[in-house]
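User: quick one, sequence for these C-alpha cells?
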C-alpha cells in the first residue's frame, strides 16, 4: 500500500502545482522549471532509498541499498 501512495505523490503534486502557481502569480516558464526540478528531486530521493527509512519504521526491518 505504501508503494502505491509513493507513486501517487508526483501525480498529486502535478495537479496541485498549477493552482498554487496561479495563486502566487507565476509564469508558465516557472511552472515548467518547478515541475522539472521537483521530478528530479523526487526521483533522486526515491532512487537513493530515502523512502526505505520510513518503510523500516513500519515493518521494523531495514534493507541496505
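Assistant:
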Amino acid at each position: 500500500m505504501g508503494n502505491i501512495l509513493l507513486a501517487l505523490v508526483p501525480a498529486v503534486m502535478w495537479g496541485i502545482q498549477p493552482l498554487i502557481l496561479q495563486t502566487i502569480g507565476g509564469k508558465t516558464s516557472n511552472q515548467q522549471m518547478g515541475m522539472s526540478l521537483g521530478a528530479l528531486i523526487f526521483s533522486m530521493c526515491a532512487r537513493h532509498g530515502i523512502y526505505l527509512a520510513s518503510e523500516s519504521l513500519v515493518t521494523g526491518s531495514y534493507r541496505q541499498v
